[in-house]
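LAB NOTEBOOK - FOLDING QUEUE
OPERATOR: T.R.
BATCH SIZE: 2
PURPOSE: Compare the predicted structure-token outputs for two unrelated chains run back to back under identical settings.
PRIORITY: normal
REVIEWER: second-year student, initials M.K.

ITEM 1
FIELD SEQUENCE / FIELD STRUCTURE:
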Amino acid sequence: MTASKQFSDEYLQYLTALIAQLDRASIARFADLLLESRENETTTFFLGNGGSASTATHFVNDVSLGSRQFEKPFRAISLCDNQAVITAIANDDGYENIFLQQLQILAKPGDTIVCISASGNSKNLIKAIEYAKQHGIYIVGLTAFDGGYLKEHCNLNIHVPTKVGEYGPAEDLHMVVCGLVGSYFRAKFLNA
């Protein structure tokens, strides 16, 4: 067996073991929360850094467009996508404020933020979480490693129990949650 084949086998076995440990009740509660947000016409903001920023964007695509709910849409926005806004805030006021300042402009009490982070300790997420707590905004965390600050301060957490530094498996399983929730909505609305 080649080294790459062995690594592939072990990696996929590890992902399978991690999937078995995901809390299905938390995932179901997250899906229900998004449905409640749709019914209440509140907005869900997705945020993350690096690979988690891509996951945030993918979530918005799958939730808002993938469900094909145009008459009563999911109001979902990724705060990772407007590079002009992000670079302006980072340049003028510091990278730690890129999510906070967008929330200050866009978010209302009753809205939700979905923070996607393996470590849960990014300064820009912490500032967004603190703002959300002070302004009646519900906080969902998708975490890994030990969950960090995010796991301790969110209202609902979906945790991937990886070792510190295992970004690949952590981000893979955050995307599994994305695919699961998006597929659930497609099945719910398109096959109804």
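ITEM 2
FIELD SEQUENCE / FIELD STRUCTURE:
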Amino acid sequence: MLMKTWYKSVDVLSDLEVREGIKAFSNWPTIPQLYVKGEFVGGCDIVREMYQAGELATLLSSKGIEAATI
């Protein structure tokens, strides 16, 4: 089965207005930030903790995203 992968990255560091806007939008003071299917998940520290606890793969799976395994 062929699965389409959609992702988008935005260089918020190159534009002060975008950088401050994303912080205000998420009500989160730091970047990078992870959004999954339009939903804010957290900043780098939260995402790292979720990954280490196995929660990130669970979240991705619940959103219909298959996590890559190494």
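REVIEWER COMMENT (ITEM 2): The chain has a mean pLDDT of 86.
FOLLOW-UP: none requested
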